Amino acid sequence: MTEEMVMQIGQNAITTMVYLAGPVLLAAMAVGIVISILQAITQINEQTLTFIPKMIAVILTLVIMAPWMLRVLQDYAISIFGGAGEMIH
Questions:
Q1: What's the sign of the alpha-carbon dihedral 53, 59, 64, 70?
Q2: Dihedral (C-alpha) 70, 74, 75, 78: value to the nearest 10 degrees?
């Protein structure tokens, strides 16, 4: 296994991780910003108000994006296990 292969595997792993975590994190961040703006407008400073809407947004995002996320993860696993023979030499 050469250094280029190791760097390529690491780069693919990080890219896959960003693809999988990105939509969920963006949904949580968007809901958090909207709730923060509403709290600033109404001057309600309750920290627990953001928890439930964020949790619902994350669950909905996971349900909606699950087929795509599974496909990305399968493609990554196939590329890793499919190239295992080349990595050994």
A1: positive
A2: 180
Residue 21 to residue 37: CA distance in whole angstroms: 24
CB 84 within 8 A of CB 1: no
Asked whether the whole model's pTM tops 0.85, one would answer no
Query: Which tokens sit at 87?
Result: 């990595």
> Which residues, at least 6 apart from 38, have a Cβ–Cβ distance to it below 8 Å?
44
**Which segments in the chain show pLDDT lower than 50?**
none
Kindly give, in sequence order, each residue whose CB lies less than 8 Å from that of residue 31, ignoring residues fewer than 6 positions away: 50, 53, 54, 57
| Token code pair at residue 1 | 């296994």
- Ordered by start, the domain boundaries in the chain are 3-88
Which two three-digit tokens encode residue 13? 């792993």
